[in-house]
């Protein structure tokens, strides 16, 4: 009897025990303010993972030679605080087992739980939004408060690609984070900026969070809160290639598959880039 | 200077003070379990209201002769309990001013707030789902708990068109509600059933809630939790025409405009039916 | 060299000279009031014509044995009066050549031109709308005035399936047309009604116009002005089968392909029904 | 660590060894003539399986009490003959293990492989199309030849709901199958017909194949070759309830999710109906 | 009682009397030649206005501190000449009251009316098309004739981003306008070109019209007549920032929301840019 | 009687005998691995051809002055080998008549047939994929084997824009083709690369194949197997302008119109560019 094709992320078929990378999704979009749909992000990223060849020509590696597993989706509640707690519990297990969590959102809120479990010293986020509100729509666990919550638990926060926030958030960002707006990325070039970020990290434990809306919504419009005038997919590829090997926890969030698939296609490829680059850079 | 066209429900342009019917939307879909999108329900119903002639030939009335206002949308929180509280506060004002609330969901959860404000003795709901869970996904204010919450505050509950629930909910429905499943509606006919319901009401204060998924999803698929084997739009028209004049509060919820507009078209027409029939039956 | 597949209505490949039926489209939707898109009707109907087998089992005929041609689309102006004139000129040529025009709309307005050219004594229209306004949005050649314009040129008008119009239009319909509303069709049955219509026609020259919105929008939602509570496709099939053989000109208008294709599928099948039944009933 | 949600058909989480029902998909649509997309059928049916409560109120059973497994998707080739062979091999394993195959198409062609493995004496198919061509588009393993291929291997063929085929196919159907067209189903009622079919079966081994286009495309338009004037979902429910307990192999094919989900919703519910009714009727 | 959320452009809630900027839409698309849908442009731009933070970090201003009103939509006719007249009348009122009109199309034709009312000396238009036909599809008031009509009433016309027109239009453009094609913008840079334009304006009264198709359709595909090889959203931002303060009337037309929202998102942001930059540059 | 508008590629109305360029489509997508839909490519490209002015301002030519014909679509089988044979037969007729074939896919597989008929010495392909597999999904005539099949029959193969393949394909490409990956195009510039290619061609007979996925899927997402990090439409325009005049056969394949039309719009314009540049460069 032939083996039927699996429904998980392509080539993520190592048994959990032997896996170094643990993929899982959190299809939660309960605090979304503009349009919902990021709950379908994990499904879309998995589907598009099958669009690509397993071989990464730049790295010279076949993805099926890297020990990756996909545990499916985690869904614990519709209340944001409970979701964050559930994610934290789940990721703690992964970290305890010495594995690297690779989480697919869902809305950005889920990152708060993963960061809590990974316990990084530096948090690097690519995002169109500052996400530095203290509260939004009645909860401190909103997609608009993610970086603010993380800020309370790490030593350094780096924000790349931001272009949206209220006056207060921009003030907080200026004082308490390393902010590289999208306009700054365009002017100075992503490579220069990543050099500065690497210097600042100085070998500390990093969590890397990609909010899909960091990329210009004219290039990848499948987003809950789309913003023009953003970064390019090539900028993001550079971020993942450069910072990936230094990262203890990774997520890709806020994909809302309203488009013809390009947003999920970019996500699936960048997730693979992260895994491949981290694997090459290991030891 | 010509007067620009308004963005509200068609012909709902009476000033609030003079209005008898007060339309408003609650674009909340935070606890949705299957697919989100009912937050776009109010917008879709308003858009389709402009598709129809103002004249109701069966009633012989022009809608612009009925005093209706549309206050726009109410959005207070992403936490279900706070949303219910906000709706209750808002509707209390409408009731206090002697007007009839006509609410567009959003998910069914918003009904709990409106019922609390209207304070009916009998609650009649058309719904594919029993909505009798005590809790779902971490909250008692979920779209799956609406009828259970209402059951705690009214004398009688009538459920028409249901065909989905777990074993416990069907037991509760059998013991504590007047349940007419969709199969029963098909077998006995909606007119017969409505006769029984009218007898049971006996002139008491009624709240009428239409969950759009009461209708078969093959006829109106623009729903968050679509169910086949349901009621027809004609059945619903009969419900609204028969019970409308006896109703102190009305809502139409769970329209998620994924389709070619038919679900919102039916909703807009039935909302008008309610208003027209209530207006004719006044005195 | 093999013959490439044509882009016209399936099996409509008889040369014009030898054809008895002349298909053409008028992709005009300039006066549409709710949502545009009927300009894509002809294209959609042609595409779906290839979905079906050529054989009509009820009639025992293969469509490729009937002499049909498809001349493509006619587009002359964006001004409704000029469009009507252009259609009238075009159809006059077809009629002069002793052929039967089979027109695909576009909006209903194009019918005014075709009727003018065919010169029927009786006009039968299936439509959700009375289309009896004298003027709409600044022109007497609007989709809302079609039946009114036709009324000025024929002896008898039969309206089947209507359920929308203002008070004045319903008064005109009562006085000057044979009106069978959708509710009446449901109550009395289409067969009974068609018997009455046949008696009334008494062998006179008939033009049959199908406005796709005659059918309930829950069954075929691909429409510019969708209306629930309408006729069924089976009702329409009965109309076409019964009246088709008596008809000198035919059109199918107002298909706006927003849906998954069902509206165009029904249209393509009913166009074939018309052609097949007319062909069988000839001589 | 909490258990993440699985990606399979809802509640189909029994280990293969203990399962009585074995779900798998064959996302093949290579011979599709009108529009492709049935390859997405298995995915859509699985997604919609999560839309429903596990409880079947008519049967009084919770689906999670029935031993079902879902093996994911099988994809072996793009050449129809190889696909048929692959399916046959795969299903032979399931049958040898004493389990009941429950296959999701993909196009109807996959049924030929499953029937070959199950080896029924009677083949019952609900389908808008006769599928009795000997060859189509260069292959005898086309979606238009399914029933013809099966006819070569079974004692009796029953076709329910057909309304499309060429003259030759209707002749073959008349001579060599038990044909109940959609018009006949409407006239005589599905219950009467199923009584006849049960009598004819006389306890022999049955394979039941549901081509989703048996249902009227105005009710479920998510199809590769949509046909109006068809059966209703309630008719299909009756077929599955009545014949399900007598069936050794089952499939649901030709769902192409272009619509708002209603076609997959009906499919998911009818698959459950089959499993539940077969389970109740076992021993 | 809480205040319900309004349905207008975000933060455009100053009373008309106190407003400096007057937003209104003209949902007209009657002369559209390729695909209709710009009638939904005003609705889409308003919806996406709620996607953005009120704060403009580059300008250091909160939009709610700028006196803006939104009057809703204006719809007067389906005949292009009457629409132009209606817009002219309406805008004359706004201008007479000393306010700045900010109009959302609808098709480009509406600009002719607004320009007539504003009476500028210089007309600057960003457009993929020359729009210099004298007549199209039977009317001189077509979307293909806009710049030709305006040319008859102003001193100077500047066209930026054009790449489509017939031979005659390119000859007229060369002789009678300042034409910067999209290729020229790419080669010389938008900043250089805007320097030349500012010099040419010399403080005269300017009307600025943005046809959304000036931007490359691969970046913003939600258009009635999409053209590749165009400008970027960043180019447009530069145009609005540079010329905005010198502008007496502004419009953004031809958004047809077929895409995932990116075209309306860019439009909403650029409308805000115009208002903010004009407000900062006032006095 | 006015002439109705044709359904073919815009301005491709020269009789076959007089035509120099022969357009035809092959709506085949039977071996597609990720998502089907390229069968709708020819239809979409034809539709979008009507979006553009006939005048090419860079070339100074009106398309209707170039002798082009459109023969419609060719569909011979669902088996890939038979499709390739059918295309080869059909193109042989065109070549024998001294005309230039301009083919619209359908999937890339159809190119194998056209190349076989044209018999070029050099094959230039723009493609995201190497297409160098010897076999895929059971057939050597798969969309993943196109360049491998062609490699067996020509002297030189040039691949531009590739970024996807397995390890073995990259090894074959390095040894047996002139490979310019998308990253190389970005680094060195398309003009430089085209200079090298022209030198290498040295006046030999060229076939130019454009796989639409050569372009970055964030710019044109209407693709069967979308890949980010690709070429731009401007790069492709340069390829067509530079190599077009040297080309004996041309195709544009793999357009799958899932998007808002931008992919088909780019295709239609580049097809015109090819024809116009080849016509100018003739003699
Ligand atoms: Mn974020
Ligand atoms: Mn963000
Ligand atoms: Mn409910
Ligand atoms: Mn419900
Ligand atoms: Mn009409
Ligand atoms: Mn109508
Ligand atoms: Mn079949
Ligand atoms: Mn079928
Ligand atoms: Mn323009
Ligand atoms: Mn333009
Ligand atoms: Mn290729
Ligand atoms: Mn490719």
From TrEMBL, chains A, B, C, D, E, F:
Cofactor remark from the record: Binds 2 manganese ions per subunit.
Coiled-coil segments on the chain, per record: none
Residues at which Mn(2+) binds: 108, 127, 129, 131, 211, 213
Keyword terms, alphabetized: Hydrolase, Manganese, Metal-binding
Enzyme Commission no: 3.5.3.11
GO molecular function, one term: metal ion binding
InterPro entries for this protein: Agmatinase-rel (IPR005925), Ureohydrolase (IPR006035), Ureohydrolase_dom_sf (IPR023696)
Database matches in PROSITE patterns: ARGINASE_2 (PS51409)
GO biological process, one term: putrescine biosynthetic process from arginine, via agmatine
Cofactor(s) the protein needs: Mn(2+)
Domain of life: Archaea
Gene3D superfamilies: Ureohydrolase domain (3.40.800.10)
Similarity section: Belongs to the arginase family. Agmatinase subfamily.
Protein name: Agmatinase
Encoding gene per record: speB
């Amino acid at each position: 009897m032939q083996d039927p094709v699996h429904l998980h992320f392509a080539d993520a078929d190592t048994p959990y025990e032997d896996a170094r990378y643990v993929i899982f999704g959190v299809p939660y979009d309960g605090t979304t303010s503009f349009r919902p749909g990021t709950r379908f992000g994990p499904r879309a990223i998995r589907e598009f993972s099958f669009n690509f060849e397993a071989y990464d020509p730049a790295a010279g590696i076949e993805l099926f030679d890297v020990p990756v597993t996909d545990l499916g989706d985690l869904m614990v509640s519709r209340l944001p605080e409970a979701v964050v707690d559930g994610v934290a519990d789940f990721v703690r297990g992964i970290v305890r087992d010495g594995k690297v969590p690779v989480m697919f959102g869902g809305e950005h809120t889920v990152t708060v739980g993963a960061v809590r479990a990974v316990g990084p010293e530096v948090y690097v986020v690519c995002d169109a939004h500052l996400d530095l509100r203290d509260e939004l729509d009645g909860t401190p666990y909103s997609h608009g408060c993610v970086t603010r919550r993380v800020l309370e638990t790490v030593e350094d926060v780096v924000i790349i690609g931001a272009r949206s926030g209220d006056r207060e958030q921009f003030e907080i960002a200026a004082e308490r984070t390393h902010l590289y707006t999208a306009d700054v990325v365009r002017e100075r070039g992503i490579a220069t900026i990543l050099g500065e970020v690497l210097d600042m990290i100085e070998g500390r434990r990093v969590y890397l969070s990609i909010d899909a809306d960091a990329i210009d919504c004219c290039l990848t419009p499948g987003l809950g809160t789309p913003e023009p005038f953003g970064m390019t997919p090539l900028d993001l590829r550079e971020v993942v290639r450069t910072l990936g090997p230094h990262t203890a926890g990774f997520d890709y969030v806020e994909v809302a598959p309203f488009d013809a698939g390009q947003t999920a296609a970019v996500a699936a490829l960048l997730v693979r880039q992260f895994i491949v680059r981290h694997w090459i850079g290991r030891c």
